[in-house]
Each structure stands twice: as structure tokens, then as C-alpha cells.
Design a protein that fits this description.
The chain is α/β, with parallel strands linked by helices. The chain has an eight-stranded parallel barrel, surrounded by eight helices. Strands 4-5 form a two-stranded antiparallel ribbon. α9 links the parallel β9 and β10. α7 packs parallel to α8.
Length: 277
Amino acid sequence: MKAYRLNRLFNGTSRRCFDVAVDHGFFNERGFLGGIENLEACVKTLVAAAPDAIQLTIGQAPLLQSLPGKDKPALVLRTDVANVYGKDLPDHLFSRMIAQPVEQALRLDAACIVVNLFRIPGEPEVTDQCIQNILAAKPECDRYGMPLMIEPLVFKPNAQAGGYMVDGDLEKILPLVRQAVELGADVIKADPTDDPGVYHQVIEMAGRIPVLVRGGGRVSDQEILERTHRLLQQGAAGIVYGRNIIQHPNPAGMTRALMALVHAGATPEQAAKFIQQ
């Protein structure tokens, strides 16, 4: 049964997936809300640009699923909320799962659920909570045929990075990706490495499980297009990007540019033309 839902997530021709993440409001960070202040308008813009999936929370998923027609992107449902992204971390960190995540996903006709697996320096209890979330969700995902996307996310030390920032160290990413596979992921949503040229090692570590690459913070058009192209050449099965789309002056154009890379094998130069249009 999971294969049926995964068929809605991955393009039938390229067998890749482009998921646009707009679940940032879940995490209570003002800086995450740029470009999604009016989420209803944002979702309509993205639907018109036709990515494979849109990643939303339990409170906002109806903005996508209530739209008429059968051709809208699939829903990826964010199922955990955390307080780990701030510039100054609170004394008590948490990562909590919504109640009955799989049943709620089924009621919303989601194609997949996604849950974090954090590695935060000096905060092992948050990793423990993430693992408990995954262990609780996995049997229900198997029972109801709901694909489980796990997001292994390596943080830099908060004091060093001045707030939430991805650590692109291959040696830290590899074991966390492998742990996500061992915990039963059907899809991996993983950090990009500082050097995109070594990403094939992440793909190899995940084995038969497809790896979608996270976008991270906002960067220039040239950087995101060139990085995406290189990561796809390394074997990535797709991308999950948020801020590089929703905070772009032309979100629809950037979506189409990335779609050209992911599904049509375009070069960065060819893809850039969609943004200019």
C-alpha cells in the first residue's frame, strides 16, 4: 500500500520528487514567516507552478486539500513541532509529535508524513524525543500503508552559528542518515553536504531508500541552481526546498526552474530562464 502513495509523491517519468516545504509557521520563529504571511495565497501560487508535493502542517493542510480538481500536488504532512531553531535556545528543548499522526494524515489524504531526527550538540534528550516519535509512528505507518519520511538534521553549535544552522559535515551526516534508515524510513530528507561532490556517499549510505535533499537557508539563484544540479548528478532522488522558493521574488518561476532541473535534466543555465520569464 505504501507504494501507491509513493507513486503520488514521485514523478512517474523521472522517478524523482520535488516537495516544497511551507510548514515553517509550526516552529514559532518570526524569521521563518517571510514569504508565507499569507499562506493561502502562497499555496495557490505553488499549486499553479505544479511541484510534486507541498509540505504543510495539520492546521494548514486544508489550504491545499480543499482545492478542487485531481491534479494538485500531493500533501506531505509535517507531524512534529519543536523549539530548537531560535537564535537563543530556551532552557528546555522539545520535539513533540501531534496526536495520532497517521490517522490525521489519512483523514487529510496525505501521501506521506515527515518527522525530524535532530542531532544538536549538547542536547541528546532532543534526539531521544525524536527517536521516540519515530518509533511510535513507524508501526502505524506500516499498518495503514503511510510512507514515513525521516528528516535527519545535523546542527552546528548554536553559540558558534549564532542560531539554527545546518552542519554540512559529511562525517556527521552519514551516521544520522543511516540511523534514519535503520529506524524504518521509506524516504530520507537529508542535509546537503558542504561539498556537493561527496554526496554520493550519502546516497550509498541510504541504500535502497530514496534521498531528498533539504534546501536550507536562502542563497542566490545561481548557488541554489548549481548546487541542486550537482546533488542530482550525485544520485539524489529529489529535493525539499522551502525558503529558497517562498522568499524568492518570483516563487512560481523558481519552482519551475527547479522542476526543470529535477525532472527534465536541465542545466542551471537552462533552468534560470524560467526565473527570468
